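We were asked to recover a plausible sequence for a given structure. The inputs and outputs are reproduced exactly as logged, with field labels preserved.

PROBLEM: sequence recovery
POSITIONS: 107
GIVEN STRUCTURE:
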């Protein structure tokens, strides 16, 4: 069994899988939606903290750049986050990893 995290013991991981296995599909889906909403709020809070002068449209564009791959942003939204100087999501990199990397620079 592959560890969930370096700080998760095998016993804790087994318990996690056991508890998750008891949930109905509806409960699992509800948890997934809640986690997605929490991640969205976390990213938005980070952007508002970093760019307090930004208006809602700039925050929206920065959010899009943060959570979608650059090529998708260009194709779907018609702007290049790199050209605008926005931090952007690298293809293949998770948003969680982006957030953790950004948190190291906050202080």
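RECOVERED SEQUENCE:
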């Amino acid at each position: 069994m592959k560890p969930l995290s370096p700080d998760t013991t095998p016993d804790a991981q087994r318990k996690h899988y056991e508890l998750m296995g008891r949930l109905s599909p509806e409960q699992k889906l509800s948890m997934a939606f809640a986690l997605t909403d929490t991640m969205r709020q976390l990213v938005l809070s980070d952007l508002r903290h970093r760019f307090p002068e930004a208006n809602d449209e700039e925050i929206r564009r920065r959010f899009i750049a943060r959570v979608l791959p650059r090529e998708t942003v260009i194709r779907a939204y018609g702007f290049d986050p790199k050209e605008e100087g926005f931090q952007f999501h690298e293809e293949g990199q998770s948003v969680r990893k982006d957030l953790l990397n950004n948190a190291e620079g906050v202080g």
